[in-house]
Amino acid sequence: MTDMLLEVENLVIGMRRAGRPDAVIVDDVSFSVAAHERFGIVGESGSGKSLTLRAVAGLLPKGVEVLSGRIAYAGKSLTGMPPQERRRLMGPEIAMIFQEPMTALNPVIRVGEQIAEGPRRHLGLSKKAANTVAIEMMARTGIPDPERRARAYPHELSGGLRQRIMIAMAVSCNPRLLLCDEPTTALDVTVQHQVLKVLEGLCADTGTALIFVTHDLAVVNQTCTDMAVMYSGHIVESGTVADVLGDARHPYTQGLLGSAPDFDRPERRLVPIPGFPPSLTSRPAGCPFAPRCALAVDDCSKAMPTTELVAPGHTAACIMTAGVLA
Amino acid sequence: MSTPTLLLAARRQRRAAAPRTLKAWYQNRALVAGIIIVGALVLVAVLAPVLAPYDPVEQDLLNTLADPSAAHLLGTDKYGRDVLSRLIWGAQVDLRIGFLAVLIPFVIGTVVGAVAGYFGGWFDTILMRIVDVFFAFPFYVMVIVLVFIFGSGEFSIYIAIAAVSWVSYAKIVRGEVLVAKQQDYVVAARLGGLSHGRVLVRHIGPNVLSQAIIYAMSDIVMDIMAIVTLGYLGLGIAPPTAEWGSMINDGQEFITTQWQQATIPGLVVVVASLGLSLLGDGLSDVLNPERRK
Amino acid sequence: MLHRLRFIPARLIQSIPVAFGVTLIVFFMAHLLPGNAALALLGQRATAESVAALTTQLGLDRPLPEQYLIFLAQLFQGNLGTSLTYQVPVSDLLVQAVPVTLALLLYALILSLFISIPLAALAAFRPGGSRDLGVRGFTLVGQGMPQFWVGIMLLLIFAVRFRLFPVGGYGTTQLDHLYFLFLPALTLAISMSPTIIRSLRSSMINVLESEYVGTAKSKGSYGISLFRGHVLRNAAIPTVSVIGVNLGFLVGGSLVIERVFALPGLGSLMINSIFSRDFPTVQGVTLFVALFVVVIGILTDVVYTMLDPRVDMSKAVRA
What we know:
The structure holds 3 protein chains of 3 kinds. Chain B is mainly α. Chain B is built from 12 helices and no strands. The longest helix of chain C is centred in the last third of the chain and has 39 residues, at 223-261. Chains in contact: A-B, A-C, B-C.
């Protein structure tokens, strides 16, 4: 397993009160990402997908922390390493793209300068050389007239351009792993498509691995090779994109597919999942999806189902549907 | 709206809805500390005739600049007056003027600001220009000039402070009214046929007043500072009346030999201001919990 | 950058009415003096002739509007009248005193930033922590200290006890000035910093929670470079207007502090003139100080615009 770029094992994220674990938001999440892999994490808001990503980046919000588990990058434990060493990885090894480029870009600094910051710090470039790199990166993300745009402030650019700036910033130090937190959610559908194309192109060129967090199955389908589905802090199903979307085993994944529009079959009726995801404070015992699940039986509410292999490289956590191979 | 903003909005709402119970008041440590400090000082001021061991203006020229001793706990000043007694009586003068000086500007500023904010129009435009002009004069400069014009004494201090500080109340209240009159419940009250006066007094008043009261707490501190400063400059309450600022001025002369003469009255001012600031902070937490940072 | 400062002419025009209002108030001060102003000014020294002479000198025998127009006309020629005590033009006295006060203000502003920025950062780094509480305690106590008393305490400690600094005066050479002005400037800085710290602290907390600081961290930026590059400048923006508003207060405070340290600035000039009932000089100082505050307001807008590229002052000016 050492050929994995990123390994996340039994990750638990939550809040502490008076030194003791209080609320658990992400529970026992494990996955791994190989070099060149493009891994999607799908889930609704509150499923814990963004926090999982932020834990990898070491950017958990105040009060939220990794309670247990292990995150390892290229065989080295990120959670155990001293903060200075970890920060040296951020930029040249691991980079991140945020959901809302307007708030993720510093409003009072020219975008070119913001892109150049990483190369100056990590590649030891002069101000001028870093600026050249910045303009080159902007050109590679398809920003027209990059010399002029580099001198613009974030508020002077459109949403699509801003997100391209974010991408240029993230790839400016040639990272091996790129973390994307819903990078296209805040954009118009047409712009969304263009930005995804840019992202895919860059990753294909440089061989950068990708973790892509989104609530949009279509985006995962377009962008990723592998994926995990998260619900209420747990990974309920994972595998290759073809397996998970083509042969969904977990009732929640099936529900998601049923409620998402399918442009190849526009005549199909959308079936919404009844009910709402449980809130942080009222998580049921056992399978969190049980209250909304059509297949649920009494046993579902007794204990969290174990994650089972349902096909080679394809896992699901459901006592009703996962036991097929067993 | 992303998840964090929703969470934040919900939390704000919860705070706003928090019950204003006695318990909430009690749990507010700043408020309790403020009440204790200010209460103690007011008590000292009121009980000055009982508490002060000597007459604050009685001179004893045979015993000037005495070091602290059992007879004179804080020593005597250059006229042989008991420093402790002067401090205690000074509380009466400084606190009385501080509290009273706030009243006139509070009333004038609140009324003018409320009317300007509520009705807007030319009155509001002119008022805002006047406010701009007044804000160009630094507080101390204006107060000193006005005290010069009206002559020193307690009455001039009231006029000078009122002339300067009504502007701040007007500005604050106007701003609050502008916000308040957009609120749904005010619009509803107007549509329900209530007169302008009733809407102002019944619906806008209570919300706006709390802001003015919170400001008044810091304004009392400003006023006490002004009185003490005027006293220090020799423009305040005429001697021989005991007053903290003039005591500091008297003490500065002997700073090399009797450091406590200038130091202690200043410390008393610090304690008084601290108490009032804590009271103000505590009040603002209790009166508008939704604005807490 | 320059095109963003195009609002300045409009902003200047906007402050003309305020400037006129200031002259009007200063003008009317003379008429607030109870009874005959000349008599009130001369006090004990008054004789029938001297009152008549001063009445003519001050132009008090003409109708009010005419007096005001004369006052304005003289003002535009830089004529602020003649000092009753020194018998020289008030403008000459101002020319001597203004540099001292300006130097004191600038010095104090710089020192207060040296005090406020580290303390605010210390407090904002962990809100609610022990350092934050300590800094909050300092701001609470700092706000409650009378400025002149802070000055006396600094004198007591650094001039009387340790003899590190002079007890007063201004010195003769430039280097002297820096040395002599240190304690007075520090006094002002201490009384100014609580306000700056409060503002900086709360804006730093906001900035530290912002997404772009997360972005900066994801680029490996941390510590001092994160603070300088991404926190300080953003947090400084709201604080600039707080400083702008409070500079007026600082100006007032500097007048009092000059008395404590016997500095030959505007404050000493004003207080001395008040004791000698030299009304034209009092009027001149007041007018200068008020117009100076109006100019500070404009400068604040300029600095604000330069720090925050999102601000479009030309809209604010038109409104």
